[in-house]
Amino acid sequence: MNLKTTLLAGLLCLAGIAHAIEKPVIKIETGNTSLIYRVGDNGRLYQSYLGKRLNHEADINHLPQGTEAYLTHGMEDYFEPALHIVHNDGNSSTLLKYVSHDSRNLSDGVNETVITLADDQYPVTVKLHYVAYANEDIIKTFTEISHREKKPVMLHKYASSLLHLNHDKYFLTEFAGDWSHEANVMERELAFGKKVIDTKLGARANMFVSPFFQLAVDQPSEENAGEVLVGTLGWTGNFNFTFEVDNKSQLRIISGINPYASEYSLPSGEIFRTPEFYFTYSLNGKGQASRNFHDWARRYQVKDGDQTRMTLLNNWEATYFDFDEEKLIGLMDEAKKLGVDMFLLDDGWFANKYPRSSDHQGLGDWIETADKLPNGIGRLTAEAKKHGIKFGIWIEPEMVNPKSELYEKHKDWVIHLPNREEYYFRNQMVLDLSNPAVQDYVFGVVDQLMTKYPDLAFFKWDCNSPITNIYSPYLKGKQTHLYIDYVKGLYKVLDRIKAKYPNLPMMLCAGGSGRSDYEALKYFTEFWPSDNTDPIERLFIQWGFSQVFPSKTLCAHVTTWNKDASIKFRTDVAMMCKLGFDIKMSDLNPNEQVYCRQAVTEYNRLKPVILEGDLYRLVSPYGSNHTSSMYVNKNKNQAIVFAFDVYPRYGEHILPVRLQGLEANKMYQVKEINLMPGVSSSVNGNGQTFSGEYLMNVGLDLFTGYKLNSRIIEIIAQ
Ligand code: DGJ
């Protein structure tokens, strides 16, 4: 090479570097996926790619520029923006240009990239955060918005995430329903225009729809094939997912807080941090997406995600409000005999002026009702100790009945319209958590109970009302902050509880799954998916929630709902998740009682597989008279298969259940477990040994023509 060519090559190389510096490529990568951003000639940020991981560096330059990453209101785009700010001068346009980006390792396999964008006319900065979890294929994203204008700017839209997809077709699955009818799986194709999934309920925000979705591209979603993006928002309040197909058949997915009635005034120098949006892009269908979420949630997100869970006996359906000390101690005897870890005292233990004898009164007065519990909670925790079990307690600290001393004393703490008649949902109202004094009070509910009764080992935190009578006495002129500041106030309280009582497990409940999101699960070990405990309904509800939440977070109780189903069927359904009982054991016959005791023992033995293993959903209850799922432990030497016949047709063609997730070349013994006392297995092949290959390709005859029949099979490597 002569001097001239060397110099030329050097110059070209420098130009290349300069080019790269000017127009960086930003790759957010997990083990199997890439999300790639590039800066255009105009200095703006574009999403060039989202999909299967691209491993050849040289290919990146061939990628099309794509669509602007975080679209803003007021510029050339004609569809839904991620950001809409009204500046001090009344101008409501924002144009974001790339400023810098930075990437760092947070821990082994976890990498955070922050892309900083800024407007060139207004001192507004937007930071896009992406935390990539390499092994779990999860990306967590959120946005920070700040400015240096003289006066506060008004945020009208402030998405956590905007993702673009460019495919032939899009199929959206949503998880909607109502009280006792949660998380129904419903898939439909998206056409031009918008589909919005959102909620405006404030506190019990997810009563009608859960904050997660599945978006399959090109073809409807499948369990084990096809590309599907599964996303969920960590926000315990109003959320919004907007799916918009534009004129070029490109799809944008905007996720975040629901901006409805929530314009937010942001002072200079303060940061508005959006909630986190978590997503996985599975190349192998919904099953893989679920396993990605489960692994990630257990490892990084859920409170005590790496720890086991307690079995329990809850008194709610056994007594409702009708109990006293002796009755509860009797139930503790039953809990002890049953072999569960804990007794959970539900609603109805508090208030004296207006005793909580029904849901019409008492909420807010967290002192034991003297005639029901003359010796207080202390006697109960002492009894639990004697019984060798833990004691947990129900609270609903964010709410108040108008018939309560709290309401009489502190009407100013209640969200209510000053000039209108009050409207009640479940005879109650919501306390104003935007008010720091109310935050102190709500924290105090837990803190005082824990201080007085340090043996309390568990809380069930309920929340039965949406925000009604929407006006905060505290926020005065800033009413559009209420929905957001309520949730922020809740997190402040939960942060304090977690800091002071880091080892206190808590169940999140909102009259069923009116709350079920991954931000809340940083504070809660589990949640109550539905008040509906009919085992048939639970097969559907658990199927729905299992799409994103691991089994250890889904409380499942055996109750008297649907007495047509045997105690075995009811228990087998509950054993797929976090097992509990909410039933009077004395109402069961001796055989059933023996069965339940054995089931608890079996469950304890199988917890490592059921709670920590990989879930494979084998046969969907939707459109079928049967359903089956299985858990496989990580080293694939033990698996538990659950199989249910719901309502088989006469003469139906029944197929074997093909297992998944095993090792083809391992030999496994098949054994039916959890049988009623004295009943022997009728499963073909019970006690015999098969290869994983056989079990996964030929399968086992686990379904029958009997109504409401259930089977649990243990698969053990030889
Ligand atoms: C609603 C919950 O979902 C139930 O489990 C029970 O705790 C009641 N509230 C008590 O009022």
UniProtKB/TrEMBL annotation:
UniProt EC number: 3.2.1.22
Chain positions recorded as substrate binding sites: 179, 346-347, 426, 460-464, 509, 531
GO molecular function: alpha-galactosidase activity
Reactions performed catalytically: Hydrolysis of terminal, non-reducing alpha-D-galactose residues in alpha-D-galactosides, including galactose oligosaccharides, galactomannans and galactolipids
GO biological process: carbohydrate catabolic process
InterPro entries attached to this UniProt entry: Aldolase_TIM (IPR013785), Alpga-gal_N_sf (IPR038417), Alpha-glycosidase_related (IPR050985), GH (IPR017853), Glyco_hydro_27/36_CS (IPR000111), Glyco_hydro_36 (IPR002252), Glyco_hydro_36_C (IPR031705), Glyco_hydro_36_N (IPR031704)
Pfam families reported for this sequence: Glyco_hydro_36C, Glyco_hydro_36N, Melibiase
Active-site residue numbers: 462, 531
Keywords noted in UniProt: Glycosidase, Hydrolase, Signal
Signal peptide: 1-20
Domain Glycosyl hydrolase family 36 C-terminal residues, every copy: 627-713
Top EC category: hydrolase
SUPFAM superfamilies xrefs: (Trans)glycosidases (SSF51445)
Sequence ranges assigned to domain Glycosyl hydrolase family 36 N-terminal in this UniProt record: 65-266
Record-linked PANTHER family: ALPHA-GALACTOSIDASE C-RELATED (PTHR43053:SF3), GLYCOSIDASE FAMILY 31 (PTHR43053)
Entry similarity comment: Belongs to the glycosyl hydrolase.
Full protein name: Alpha-galactosidase
Organism: Bacteroides nordii CL02T12C05
Organismal lineage: Bacteria, Pseudomonadati, Bacteroidota, Bacteroidia, Bacteroidales
